[in-house]
Amino acid sequence: MLSPLHPQFRIGILGGGQLGRMLLSPAMRFNLNLAVLDPDPAAPCADFTPDFHCGELTEYDTVIAFGRDCDLITIEIENVSTEALFALRNGDFSGPDNHPRLVRPSPEIIQMIQDKLTQKEFLIREGLPTAEFVAIETQADLPRHFQMFPAVQKLRRSGYDGRGVQVLDSPDDDRAFDAPSILERKIDFEKEIALIVSRNPSGQIVTFPVVEMEFHPEANLVEYLFSPANLSEALIRKVQEVAAHIAETLQLEGLLAIEMFVHGTDILINEMAPRPHNSGHHTIEACLCSQYEQLWRAVLDLPPGDTTLQSPAVMVNLLGAPGQTGPTCYDSPELKNLLSNPGVHLHLYGKKITRPYRKMGHITILHAQLESARQLARSIRRNISINAYSEESE
After folding, report:
1. Is the pTM of this model over 0.85?
2. Virtual CA dihedral for 326, 327, 332, 338, nearest 10 degrees?
């Protein structure tokens, strides 16, 4: 087999969104030979990837056709055909040249994390702390679990960025989903935190510094991220040990983002994602090695990078403006003026269409004093959102 750094070693990324786009920069520095598959012909990666393919990530034949031309397949989104990934990993597909391909992270990990119930069952089997929950099939099951309320209902599949999650006050709450879900007892937590851990096939495990997150009250997605997290050393060690245990138990080959609640001196694991994550965007500027470079190091079995935090950082997501849908207008005086502030780093995702609360970009603010960065971030969030073009903006 060719060396992963050989120019003919072909790497396929399933997903061409903003996470894939941010993977491109370190890939170019490593001179990696990339191909990208995404269902959107105008995906953020499309204009920057010479080998861009448009196709559904959940269609078996499409993923097989894409992956058979690759030596290694990785992901930037977990909503993919794991049936195809198993077949590619095992060389179990029809046609010529059907030798096994490398798939990292493994199809088993992706399949487990695609379903929030199997995620929970893994945590329970490993004796790891998580919120009390029950599985339900339909909305009609809710009254049988009245003791769980108030509760958080989460669709078992396809929920992300606040979609597929609903807080319910009672079993007859008309906001409930009528679909297979898990029902969690609502936790009176103090903070939401996250940690990204990497592991390469050689078994080297590295964690990034723990971060705190604040969520948008309407969109239920990350609005602010603060690094480092304001936690005791003992709690940070506990979080890191849990993350390393999970990575080793799963025999992870790649990245894993783990979201948790802080509840007194304890932690409860909320959800996991086997890919780069919103909670690691700030690592591009704030850490010696970003989460995106770390993914390449992990899946290519290279030595892990140094995750040391170089500066306190705050990340704020730039969201689509409420009530606006249409062609994206990134050209605003507010964004231009923002760049006059030292330590401000702007990332625009190049999405052609803006929608209310859609993630359109992010800003990372580096400052020796975390509180100063926090104040600037809140000012940015109050004054800047991504609008649709109008006659006045043209």
Report:
1. yes
2. 90
Span 102-149, pLDDT tens digits: 999 999 999 999 999 999 999 999 999 999 999 999 999 999 999 999
Residue 290 sits in a domain whose CATH number is 3.30.470.20
Asked if residue 219 and residue 172 are part of one domain, the reply reads: no
Q: In angstroms, rounded to a whole number, what is the distance separating the alpha carbons of residues 151 and 255?
A: 30
What tokens does 11 get?
A: 């790497």
Strand, helix or coil for residue 285 = helix
Is pLDDT above 80 for 218? no
> What is the C-alpha to C-alpha distance for residues 196 and 211, in angstroms, rounded to an integer?
9
Q: Are residues 302 and 338 in the same domain?
A: yes
CATH code: domain of residue 163: 3.30.1490.20
Say which residues have a Cβ less than 8 Å from residue 190's Cβ, sequence separation at least 6: 261, 262, 263, 264
**Which range of residues forms the domain containing residue 165?**
132-185
Q: Are residues 283 and 368 in the same domain?
A: yes
* CA dihedral angle for residue 382, residue 316, residue 157, residue 77, rounded to 10 degrees: 140
- The string of DSSP letters for 34-70 reads EEEEES-TT-TTGGG-TTEEE--TT-HHHHHHHHTT-
Q: What is the pLDDT of residue 394?
A: 44
Query: What domain count does the chain have?
Result: 3
Nearest to 254 by CA among 288, 211, 304: 304
Q: Are residues 58 and 174 in the same domain?
A: no
List Cβ neighbours of 111 (8 Å cut-off, separation of 6 or more).
82, 118
Q: At 26, which CATH number?
A: 3.40.50.20
Residue 199 lies in a domain: yes
